[in-house]
Amino acid sequence: MRRIPPLLPALLLAVAACGCATGRPAPIERGSLAEAQTFPYYRVYWVGPSFQGSPLAAADGLKGYNATVGDSVYYGDCVHGKGIFGGGSCLLPLQLTTVIYRLHSNATLGPQRNIVIRGVPATIYDEGRSIEIYTGRVAIDVFSDSFSHALQASRELLPVNASGSSSGNLPPPVYCPGLSGHLDAAVSAVLERLPGRICQRTRAQTAFANSLS
Fold first, then answer.
1. Cα–Cα distance between 162 and 98 in angstroms, integer?
2. Helix 198-212 vs helix 185-192: angle between axes, to the nearest 10 degrees?
3. For residues 178 and 83, is the Cβ–Cβ distance under 8 A?
4. Alpha-carbon distance 129 to 54, whole Å?
5. DSSP three-state, residue 98
6. Residue 99: beta bridge partners?
7. The pTM is what?
8. Which tens digit of pLDDT belongs to each residue from 180-205?
């Protein structure tokens, strides 16, 4: 599970100026978007310049990049309830965070359900408002205000800093995600087909390590 990183100064200024419920937010400044579009380390995902009528309000980039929390894009006009203000009644319609995956168990996420989205494993949690998607070298964390928005965004993802499409399957993960709980036949089949038989190798390595303890 990822902690939602601090919002960009531009977004904070917008919040201070207009609050959570007044008017429509201005679209992101061209320079901020350009910084996200030239992020060099890995693919960062978005859903385009707007989502369900809410424009892209802010985007992280190379400046101030923290590998632990990844790079995010934000849609809407108020601070997410899990943001730096530590609560509040406003939820962003959508925040997408892309981060290099580090092996961890999803058991700490609480009630959850494992599914397949666009050909790759994913985990739904936080009463359906959050989805973690496993693709390439990264995990994409989808934070939203409802399950329907989170699922829709998951189906529309595409890279902001590389060529790609919002249709078709995402690249398979090059790691075996630490899924927890029930795995249905569809999820199990995807895991067994991952490149390099990585899940089979991970299970064998874990079993060997346990035999030595």
1. 14
2. 90
3. no
4. 17
5. strand
6. 139
7. 0.82
8. 999 999 999 999 999 999 999 998 98
